[in-house]
Amino acid sequence: KREVVSKAKSIFSSLLIYFRIPLINNSRRNIYIYLLPLLCAEIIIKEDFFMSNSKKIILSGLLLALLIVLSRFVSIKTQILVISLAFLPIMISAIILGPKYSCLIAGLGDLIGALLFPFGEYFVGFTITAIFSGLIYGLFLYNKKDGEFFTGKALIIRLILSSFLVVIGINLFIKSFMIHLLYGKAFIAVFTPRVIAELINLPIHVAVLYFINPFLVKYYHQFLTDND
To answer: How far apart are the first and last CA of the chain?
Structure first.
């Protein structure tokens, strides 16, 4: 257990250094680099899963770091609108690891990003919506049969339904309402410019994940299954 936690912390820290993400000169914030991956590892270790805990936690650390990089450094942001590929690590974790992991990765990604690399005022509602996004993707995209993935029509239907709930239900309606509350802007003024962007995002989410799913299946069986 101690070795697993150490690996998760080491990989997460190494990725932050590799992507040249600076630590903020605030000891309280820097400590989250170590405490949050450790907390994530502690929660996951207690669950009963078939793939080895060490591989799941290492993969979780990689996806968490990738989520922070994509959401904070490879994105277009305004007060009202955010365009990024941050959905990728969350959906990949949902497909491979399941809803518990995708919830943790989505929630910790938003929390760590807000603490270390803030953009505007932090609002806990955004972290909660991130967790629910991870939950929705996990419930729809994770195949509970060990080592099996949804493919073909089943995958397309689940991708469309989950992406619709997240992109339209959460990102468009719920987040627009939260921005309206947070910044005091008229709801229609917040909602209107987000409509076109989210309608474009919806097919992108579906197409990108459908395209990379065969690669996820291939590399899952090649690197993540316990054949040794």
So the answer is: 19
Element of type H or E holding 83: strand 82-84
pTM value is 0.75
Task: Residue 94: count other Cβ atoms within 10 Å of its Cβ.
Answer: 27
3-state secondary structure of 143: coil
- With vertex at residue 106, the alpha carbon angle to CA 54 and CA 79, rounded to the nearest 5 degrees, is 150
CA nearest neighbour of 67 among 116, 124, 10: 116
When pLDDT is averaged across residues 202-210 and rounded to a whole number, the result is 93
* Contact assessment for residue 205 and residue 167, using Cβ atoms and an 8 Å cutoff: yes
| DSSP H or E stretch at residue 168 | none
- The whole-angstrom distance between residue 149's C-alpha and the CA centroid of its chain comes to 19
Residue with tokens 């680099």: 33
Among 124-133, 200-209, 216-225, where is mean pLDDT lowest? 216-225
**What is the helix (H) or strand (E) element at residue 186, kind and residue range?**
none
What does the pLDDT average to over 120-140?
92
The three-class DSSP label of residue 150 is coil
CA distance 19 to 101: 23
